[in-house]
Design a protein that fits this description.
Length: 709
């Protein structure tokens, strides 16, 4: 059968190219030369996940070619074709890795090449919430640039993460389409081997979130098949190399859709032939069983989560509402049912066309909601979503929250007809859609007169925010009767459970106790369940019978016990999408924290990806803990081991972000002034000895505390 010959031929070709490239590299650099990709703890990720062996030098790479050869069996059976596909993928990874020798940066904008671990961790939550419903891999050149761009846009408008390989990249560039991870269109590279960079993302997801042991190829493929919603669109003409790569994709469970009608075999649900490129989208979604959530919103620009990260530059903006310079605010306010007329959107003041182009203006909007099940506790939860709601409109940018917001409306959006009332339409539609269980009626008032904004901000708005802050301050683990479990991440981390308390938010940073409470109210059978605080086992550790029962139940028995406040004894597990990770720094008897954005090394001798690789997949790992940024200033941070006085090191930027709250807690609990001044960062020390000397000089409290280990 043609399929086998094509796959085997393609595999042979790629193998020969790889062997030659490895030999050439050895001739040039010597066999002890190091090989790696940047910003990953899983070198080389594909080979490591499939075989369990880390390749670090050219010598090891050459030896590994023998292992790849052993996958290249040549029986005419489907499994042999799939294994040849995997072998092709592994070869491609070697070819790509060689490009990075000597710290080279082989890819230039717009191509990304290798994607760092941090991006995979960022994908976790949006993939489970359906915010990113799937991953499209588009390969080759579309019949025309217009058709290619239309296909890419169709996925982008569904919020999909789109990766591009080969000729399609020039086509989207030619049509002036914006690309980049922030708009979810990521050109990988022009060589077909660069497709490995998205395969590498899928395989690392299995290691990071799925607790798949490297080398367990069977479970690896089961994981990607069941949990990574990816698919391939390959344009004609398919050559045997592309087909061999395609066999690898199918082996991982990713269907391939192609318009190469001459290519004979088609395999139901796995290899689909379609002449008409405009039907690729629907066919791909169906083959991979991807469901798209649609909220219809009556606005003149596109609306999709893919536009959330879009940036509007100063020169491109029609008008800017800037809360840092003039009075602005956004507010959700609970009203009586009789006070709210559903879908009423009122603009009080001038519209956008009355403002000078490029000027700074005031804006304030009050979203008034009413419903029998509405609670004031849900106001901040809904309000915090405004950022994402407004950002999803193409050409509109929103940053900040409360009375520190900034909104930019681009000239493009303005020319398309976008006006102030459309902000109201967005907020109305999304609030009604996402909170239908608690919001029966919703109306929006938009104020654009400077004096109205000033009066309201310093009156009603401040009053409401103050009341809310008081409520938040009074919310402590002791003051409430229930905690919540969250199992949203089980879509990727099948045995992971977060226990969310008022003083310990979910490790992703996105789920506070109030969020969990609202989620439970919205979906009583959903991801967040009530844990009634009962059966204290150890107050200091935060050990409760009811918490243990809950994690046992929701982890399907994978976890027996979890404590709320200890990093050493039955610590909470991690899925993989944590904002920060802390790990014990033995010399100073404290912990060092790294955040996902931090690219350097910590005094643990590890980078963020390396520390992060120590935990995840729902497994308990004493000594390492994934957590949210806000948890750093919590009175419950490592409370069982002495609390936040244990923090000895943090990246400078993170330290600045958390300083105000952390210093306030340290002062209140331990009477320490400016605690952050005692904490090291990368400008002070990157190794334990220098850090220790610094801590001694500052008389850091951790040095005098009980040994951690
Ligand atoms: Fe995932 Fe935990 Fe965040 Fe829930 S709280 S979304 S389980 S990380
Ligand atoms: Zn997660």
């Amino acid at each position: 059968m043609l399929l086998f010959d094509t796959v085997f031929n393609g595999n042979d070709k790629v193998y020969a190219i790889t062997e030659e490239a490895v030999n050439a590299a050895i001739a040039q650099h010597g066999e002890d030369k190091a090989v790696s990709f940047p910003d990953t703890a899983y070198v080389l990720p594909c080979y490591y996940s499939v075989t369990g062996t880390k390749i670090t030098t050219l010598k090891e790479m050459k030896e590994a070619l023998g292992v790849i050869k052993s996958l290249m069996t040549r029986e005419r059976r489907l499994n042999d074709a799939f294994m040849s596909g995997v072998a092709t993928a592994l070869c491609a990874e070697f070819v790509e890795a060689l490009k990075y020798i000597d710290g080279a940066t082989p890819y230039e904008a717009p191509c990304a090449g290798h994607l760092p671990d941090a991006i995979i961790r960022e994908l976790g939550v949006p993939l489970v919430t359906g915010d990113i419903p799937g991953v499209a891999v588009i390969l080759g050149s579309a019949p025309s640039a217009d058709e290619g761009v239309a296909l890419v846009k169709s996925y982008q408008e569904q919020g999909m993460l789109v990766t591009l390989v080969g000729g399609i990249i020039d086509q989207v560039v030619e049509k002036g389409m914006k690309t980049g991870a922030n708009v979810r269109v990521v050109p990988l590279g022009k060589d077909v081997t660069s497709v490995i960079h998205v395969v590498s993302v899928a395989l690392r997801a299995a290691l990071i979130f799925g607790n798949i042991k490297p080398g367990d190829a069977a479970n690896l493929m089961k994981y990607t098949f069941e949990r990574v919603p990816a698919f391939v669109n390959a344009f004609k003409p398919l050559d045997d190399v592309i087909v061999a790569c395609g066999a690898g994709a199918i082996a991982l469970g990713f269907p391939v859709i192609t318009n190469d009608m001459e290519f004979t075999p088609s395999v139901p649900k796995s290899l689909i032939k379609l002449d008409d490129v405009s039907k690729f989208n629907a066919a791909s979604l169906e083959a991979r069983d991807i469901k798209i959530k649609i909220t219809h919103i009556d606005i003149p620009v596109s609306f999709a989560s893919a536009f959330e990260g879009e940036i509007i530059r100063r020169g491109d903006m029609q008008v800017e509402f800037d809360g840092s310079r003039v009075d602005c605010f956004e507010l959700v306010q609970t009203k009586e049912l009789t006070e709210v007329e559903d879908h009423k959107i009122e603009l009080i003041g001038p519209d956008i066309d009355e403002f000078e182009v490029g000027s700074k203006q005031s804006i304030g909007f009050v979203v008034e909601v009413a419903g029998k099940k509405m609670q004031t506790d849900f106001e901040p939860v809904i309000e915090r979503k405004f950022h994402s709601y407004i950002n999803c409109a193409e050409g509109i940018m929103h940053t900040g929250q409360r009375d520190m917001i900034r909104i930019r409306v681009s000239k493009e959006a303005f020319d398309a007809g976008f006006r102030a009332k459309h902000l109201g339409e967005i907020l109305y539609a999304k609030v009604k859609n996402d909170y239908e269980a608690v919001v029966d009626r919703c109306q929006v008032k938009i104020y654009t007169k400077a004096e109205d904004c000033t009066n309201l901000r310093h009156g009603l708005v401040t009053e409401m925010f103050d009341k809310r802050d008081e409520r938040l301050l009074s919310l402590t683990d002791e003051s409430v009767d229930v905690y919540y479990s969250c199992i949203l991440c089980q879509a990727f981390s099948p045995s992971h459970v977060c226990v969310v308390t008022p003083e310990r938010l979910g490790l992703c940073g996105a789920v506070s106790w109030l969020d969990a409470k609202a989620t439970n109210e919205l979906e009583p059978e959903g991801a967040c369940q009530i844990i009634t605080k009962e059966g204290v086992l150890d107050e200091k550790l935060g050990a409760y019978e009811s918490v243990n029962d809950a994690v046992k139940k929701y982890s399907m028995g994978a976890l027996e016990r979890v404590t709320l406040y200890s990093i050493m004894e039955d610590p909470m597990t991690s899925c993989g999408c944590f904002e920060c990770i802390c790990g014990i720094e033995p010399l100073s008897n404290g912990v060092a924290i790294a955040n996902r954005e931090y690219a350097g090394v910590t005094p643990l001798g590890m980078t963020f990806p390396e520390m992060a690789s120590m935990t995840g997949g729902g497994v308990q790992t004493p000594g390492f803990m994934g957590h949210g940024k806000h948890f750093i200033s919590s009175k419950k941070f490592m409370a069982a081991e002495g609390g936040l006085e244990r923090i000895v090191w943090m990246p400078k930027e993170l330290k600045e972000t958390v300083a105000e709250r952390l210093n306030a807690t340290a002062k209140e609990m331990y009477g320490i002034d400016n605690f952050t001044d005692m904490i090291g960062d990368e400008t002070i020390a990157e190794d334990p000895e220098t850090l220790f000397a610094f801590l001694q000089e500052k008389n850091h409290p951790a040095l005098g505390m009980d040994p951690l280990m």
